[in-house]
Amino acid sequence: MNAITPSDRGLAPFEARLSSFQDATRKAAAGDLALTGLPGPRVEAWHYTSLRALNSYIFNEPDTCFNESAVQVILRSLIPQSGCLEPLPRLVLVNGRVVPALSSPAASLPEGVTFSAFSGSPDFGMQASPQRDPLVALNTALAVDGIKLVVEPRVKAGRILLISLAMSSSGAISFHPRHSVTLGEGASLTLIEIAAGSEGPGAYFHNPVLSCSVAEGAHLEHIKLQREAADAIHLATVYADIASHATYESFTLGLGAVLARHEVHATLRGSHAGVHVNGAQLLGSGQVGDITSVITHGAPDCISRQTVRNVLTDRARAVFQGKVLVERVAQKTDGYQMNQALLLSPTAGIDAKPELEIYADDVKCSHGATVGALDEEQLFYLRSRGIPDAGARQMLVEAFLTEAADLVQDEVAHAALGTALTEALVSRIAAWENAS
Amino acid sequence: MPAITETREQVEKLGQSSYKWGFETDIEMDVAPKGLNEETIRLISARKEEPEWLLEWRLAAYKAWLTMTEPSWAKVVYPPIDYQDAHYYAAPRKKPGPKSLDEVDPELLRTYEKLGIPLHEQALLAGVEVPEGEEARLPVAVDAVFDSVSVATTFRKTLSEAGVIFSPISEAVRDHPDLVRKYLGSVVPAGDNFYAALNSAVFTDGSFVFVPKGVRCPMELSTYFRINARNTGQFERTLIIVEDGASVSYLEGCTAPMRDENQLHAAVVELVAMEDATIKYSTVQNWYPGDENGLGGIYNFVTKRGACRGARSKISWTQVETGSAITWKYPSCILQGEGSVGEFYSVAVTNNHQQADTGTKMIHIGRNTRSTIIAKTISAGKSDSTYRGLVRMLPKASNARNFTQCDSLLIGDQCGAHTVPYIENRNMSARIEHEATTSKISEDQMFYCRQRGLSQEDAVGLIVNGFCKDVLKELPMEFAVEAQKLLQISLEGSVG
Q1: Do B425 and A373 lie within an 8 Å CB cutoff?
Q2: Amino acid B231: pLDDT
Q3: What are the structural domain ranges in chain B?
Q4: Cβ atoms within 10 Å, residue B80
């Protein structure tokens, strides 16, 4: 099954590396991928987000050596000294590989938390289903490393930072880290994930897959801050399996990359479980940002919540696809989904597809979507109180995004998001005002 | 919970209740041999005595159809259709030109009577006796379609005095070739989609309406479609053109006889509204839905689209969908004219093994265009019902507005209700609001009604009627009564 004819299936950028594998899992993934190819616009789940951008490159395996001082500079900018993130235990990956020298020593992790490299572990490729999602198949075939975190039952693990850095080299590179986070019964963890990269000569493609398993009564909070380099492509897939009385609360903030997608498949497998799939995007220039989720209610009495907000300037385009699937057994489901977009430029656009698929009758499910420009009345109110136009606009945009970020419970993560948001807002709006 | 159990039992019982309008009429038919090829198309065209350009148009559509594949994105499941295993032309044998209702085959008239179709003006509003010679005051004109050929048209005179053309499309091809040629396929091109292409190739009849400048059509126009002969797909083609400042309200209703084999219905409806024109198109669809085991029933694959070409024009679609084994239908509005308005009001009821995938498309092209979508979905039995709608704001649609409300009601835990809206915005000043909810009839509402002495059935009926009120109130009066009856029959036992 290694004979791949990638040219007609969008696999050309990875052709050389998809040719031969030793182990069965990778072989199978490459086989699945050869059958489906990378999804085109006729695939419903990719109708609004085109992967054509990948075709301009041949992606190579990244070098293992990198400029350490450059890495330190980026790290310093992401985690300012004496900032709230600084004291947290951290796991740092560069170009998809764990770098122990930059990460906190194993001993500094809280007791009951074990960390190892994932690619060698026996459950590699088990949770995610490669045949259904081609990008996950690509990840399975090409993954080199990733983190594997296990939190023992009833351990309150606190906060852990997961930092994924890209150091560009002369040519285009791609890396496909595979992460897994497992919480035992009654355990808790706040995972703060930051993806960033150096603005360099070569573009890069970051294709991480994260599998989360949250056991009974456990609580996982997952906050992601995506600030990849301007010409980067970031396509992330998250799987979350949530047992009864457990919760998975996630928030993603999308700021960087020319093409980004954050895709979440959350499955509520036990009763009285809860899931939050929230997010915000602030995009400009020609960026395309996509937040896609499939929330499956597979057990009764579960709650799902989703709030996604987009602010779009210049020629940016946002995509929101949110599906809530309520299976026949999932009676007493309570599902709510809200997607809102602010368009600040005549050339910006939004494509949204909130979707309800419901097979149980005793449910309370609703979704809403609104799209529009800034409210003229609100602007007038601020202007009439002496606030200049630009300031008033910025204030309203900031309020719009902050309201979404306020859904994050963890105060450290919340503060970090707030800082990143304000910075991005100032530069984004400034760039936009200068241009127009 | 006993209330709900009772409801469920009644829904199940409903399967046994016979389809009230399931009967076949025994009339001699003129039927083309089975199969679809160029010969069939030439035969249809020849029987209809059509001009050469129309035959060419049909053949081009057929060629396009051959290259197309059946759409599979809708949430409906059915065995593959053998398009060669159907008759594409069936016409009741003609006596030379019936000039009045007296000359129409009495068997046919009895069929309509059984359906309660107001073909005779006396039967129009139940209990109203109208003396001869006063037809002009009556509010509804009927163009009855029996299988593929219009057999009787009433109120011609009143309409023609007003300058309104209302005739079977085959007659329009003969009498007003320029109008038909200009507008046919201008909203739904021959190669638009698989079913539209099929329809364009083999359409046999349908209605043609032309309302000239400044004329307010003096009465509601109404066409009844019926599928009658075994194994005959119906391919109706309706074309409505309303000129500047004119308006029309058009009613379409369907019933079909009971049978075992699935039947294909692929109609195309095209509406054109010019400056300040208004078209109101109302449908009550009650094709045979199949029995309680999902056997039989109509496949209803319809393309309906209206173009608001002129400024301030308005097209309003109202539909009550209770029938068909499978419904695949998305009445759409292309809002081109500045300030034009599109509306879509829909009630879709599915029961037993019915599947419905229906919704609308609102394409905002012009400035200040507005659209409203109100869709109510009721699922019972083992059925699946999907709302699928698109709202697209193009870059020039400044200050365009859309409001969408989709509500689903589930009755029983064996059915499914799905909502799939697509929202695409390319204009910053356009505003889109979308809301959707899914729920069952709440215990509180039931308790409240029961406590005040309403029976289980009356209570459910009251609540469902309230649920659908926003849509039903959009129907013309004559239709609203029928629609309410249909709702009750469709959910008989559970919500009637």
Answers
A1: no
A2: 42
A3: 2-122+137-490
A4: 6
Q: Does A132 touch chain B (CB under 8 A)?
A: no
Q: Is the dihedral of CA A274, A397, A85, A258 positive or negative?
A: positive
Per-residue model confidence as pLDDT tens digits over B77-131? 888 888 888 778 776 554 444 455 565 556 656 655 655 555 443 333 323 333 3
CB A350 within 8 Å of CB A320 = yes
Of B168, B376, B145, the closest CA to residue B256 belongs to: B145
3-class SS letters over B195-248: HHHHHHHHCCECEEEEECCCCECCCEEEEEEECCCCCECECEEEEEEECCCCEE
Q: Are B418 and A356 inside 8 Å of each other by CB?
A: yes
A357 to B429: CB separation less than 8 angstroms, yes or no? no
Residues A361, B430: C-beta atoms closer than 8 Å: no
Rounded Cα distance, B97 and A420, in Å: 80
Q: Kindly determine whether residue A331 and residue B433, on different chains, have CB atoms separated by under 8 Å.
A: no
Cα–Cα dist B252/B320, whole Å: 10
Domain ranges of chain A: 6-374
Say how far residue B171 (Cα) sits from the centre of its chain: 22
**Residue carrying structure tokens 């009465």:** B219
A371 vs B422, B432, B437: nearest CB: B432
Q: By the 8 A CB rule, do B418 and A358 touch?
A: yes
Mean pLDDT of A314-334: 95
Residues of chain B with Cβ-Cβ distance to A357 below 8 Å are: 416, 418
CA B376 to chain centroid: 16
At residue A213's C-alpha, the angle toward residues A208 and A218, to 5°, is 130
Strands B29-31 and B90-92: antiparallel
* Alpha carbons B17 and B291: distance in angstroms, whole number: 9
The verdict on B394 touching A (C-beta cutoff 8 Å) is no
Per DSSP, chain B holds a count of helices (H) and strands (E) of 11, 24
Distances, alpha carbon A86 to alpha carbons A89, A150, A157, A160, in Å: 8, 22, 17, 11
> How do beta strands A233-242 and B237-242 pair?
unpaired
**Residue of B355, B393, B396, B424 to mutate, interface with A, max A Cβ within 10 Å:** B424
In chain A, what is the greatest distance between 2 CA atoms, to the nearest angstrom?
Answer: 69
**CB within 8 Å of chain A, chain B residues 72-131:** 73
How many A×B Cβ pairs under 8 Å? Answer: 112
Q: Could you tell me which of A49, A43, A14, A44 has the C-alpha nearest to residue A30?
A: A14
Size of chain A in residues: 436
Q: Report helix, strand or coil for A204.
A: strand
Sign of CA dihedral B456, B462, B463, B465: positive
pTM: 0.86
Residue A232: C-alpha distances to residues A57, A197, A235, A334 (Å): 12, 8, 10, 38
